[in-house]
From TrEMBL:
<feature type="domain" description="Tyr recombinase">
    <location>
        <begin position="170"/>
        <end position="349"/>
    </location>
</feature>
<keyword id="KW-0238">DNA-binding</keyword>
<dbReference type="InterPro" id="IPR010998">
    <property type="entry name" value="Integrase_recombinase_N"/>
</dbReference>
<dbReference type="Pfam" id="PF00589">
    <property type="entry name" value="Phage_integrase"/>
</dbReference>
<dbReference type="GO" id="GO:0003677">
    <property type="term" value="F:DNA binding"/>
</dbReference>
<dbReference type="InterPro" id="IPR044068">
    <property type="entry name" value="CB"/>
</dbReference>
<dbReference type="InterPro" id="IPR002104">
    <property type="entry name" value="Integrase_catalytic"/>
</dbReference>
<keyword id="KW-0229">DNA integration</keyword>
<dbReference type="InterPro" id="IPR013762">
    <property type="entry name" value="Integrase-like_cat_sf"/>
</dbReference>
<dbReference type="GO" id="GO:0006310">
    <property type="term" value="P:DNA recombination"/>
</dbReference>
<dbReference type="GO" id="GO:0015074">
    <property type="term" value="P:DNA integration"/>
</dbReference>
<protein>
    <recommendedName>
        <fullName>Tyr recombinase domain-containing protein</fullName>
    </recommendedName>
</protein>
<feature type="domain" description="Core-binding (CB)">
    <location>
        <begin position="71"/>
        <end position="149"/>
    </location>
</feature>
<keyword id="KW-0233">DNA recombination</keyword>
<dbReference type="InterPro" id="IPR011010">
    <property type="entry name" value="DNA_brk_join_enz"/>
</dbReference>
<dbReference type="InterPro" id="IPR050090">
    <property type="entry name" value="Tyrosine_recombinase_XerCD"/>
</dbReference>
<comment type="similarity">
    <text>Belongs to the 'phage' integrase family.</text>
</comment>
Length: 353
């Protein structure tokens, strides 16, 4: 219905209708990230189709700032999905799965402000899910209700007073130095076509980069002289939090970058024979060789757990780890602050010596 156009780094939409003057109307979006532009595009196209937005007469920026007042929770959930469209596909899939089922339970036309903790508890009971799954469902609903409160659709977050059985504390799985070395040796021994995977995994364990950050890392974001790399938003990539961050490079990480050869006509640091590595291919390759290395139940994201856990075990302050990992809150970082009994004893003795 509308064409997305980029000029001088900024996006705009171009609408066309033969009986209007002018026939083509360009609407500036004033955003630089394509994913953000696509989100606005879907919203404006939908409202243009039902007659609530006219690109020839309405200001899209003022229009976009109008307070959202959906009729019921079903409409609010669709607006929420649009607002969160920049999230990872699996995250969006979880949001849709949980929130859509909850909407059917309370009724699509029910106003968000009338939903209570009792409604949430009744729905959780109806799912007959295990305790850990109930907690996961509640977390997804909490994100939705917090967004709804921010948008003025409700005064309370319905999940705040939901009663859930407390789960035993479970620390993230992380790799030891020996396991990382075993993985790298396995890759180098098994296949020449994926030699890049060994370097990428070692690098990930020393930088804590997410999967999307690893495959989108460009050479212009790396400064070996200062020993820093920048995780930044680009036209084709958006960080999970939406904010840029600096990551210090360890000597091991710098050594990896020194070994990696820049692919011809390619701006990305880690590449395969086909050029840029796709996120799904990276996860599949990691899983395959982790299994061959005898590392059962390990996924690529465990390399991020590994980086944070290694820092915590070396006594790095929690705020420094939070900034290093790009966590939005200190609560997320706290789960990495686990120590073995021997490390606990030695750290106390050292502090009190």
């Amino acid at each position: 219905m509308a064409s997305l156009i980029q000029q001088d780094g900024l996006y705009s939409l171009q609408f066309y209708k033969a009986d209007r003057s002018p026939k083509r109307k360009r609407v500036p979006l004033r955003v630089r990230v394509k994913r953000d532009a696509e989100t606005i595009r879907r919203k404006l196209e939908r409202d243009y189709s039902v007659g609530t937005f006219d690109p020839w007469t309405d200001d899209p920026l003022a229009y976009d700032r109008k307070p959202l007042k959906p009729e019921g929770i079903a409409e609010a959930s669709e607006a929420f999905f649009d607002a969160k469209s920049h999230k990872a596909s699996l995250t969006l899939k979880d949001y849709r799965k949980v929130i859509s089922r909850f909407v059917l339970h309370v009724g699509p036309s029910t106003p968000v402000g009338r939903v209570t903790a009792k409604d949430v508890e009744e729905w959780l009971d109806s799912t007959e899910a295990k305790d850990v799954t109930r907690h996961a469902y509640c977390r997804n609903l909490k994100v939705f209700f917090r967004w709804a409160r921010k948008e003025g659709l409700t005064d309370v977050v319905a999940t705040e007073n939901v009663r859930l059985r407390k789960l035993p504390r479970k620390y993230p799985r992380f790799l030891t130095h020996a396991e990382v070395e075993r993985f790298a040796i396995t890759v180098r021994r098994e296949a020449r076509s994926v030699q890049w995977l060994a370097d990428l995994v070692v690098f990930a364990c020393h930088t804590g980069l997410r999967r999307s950050e690893l495959v989108n890392l460009r050479w212009d974001a790396v400064d070996l002289d200062s020993g820093m790399l920048t995780v930044a938003n680009t036209e084709s990539f958006r960080t999970k939090s939406g904010a840029d961050r600096k990551v210090p490079l360890s000597e091991t990480a710098k050594a990896v970058l020194g070994r990696v050869e820049a692919a011809p006509n390619c701006e990305y640091v880690f590449t395969c024979s086909n050029g840029k590595i796709s996120p799904d291919y990276l996860s599949q390759a990691f899983k395959k060789y982790a299994t061959k290395a005898g590392l059962k139940g390990v996924h690529l994201h465990h390399t991020r757990h590994t980086a944070c856990s290694w820092l915590a075990q070396r006594g790095v302050p929690i705020e420094a780890i939070r900034r290093f990992a790009g966590h939005s809150t200190i609560t997320v970082t706290e789960r990495y602050m686990h120590l073995s009994d021997s490390m606990f004893s030695s750290s106390i003795r050292k502090a009190l010596a």
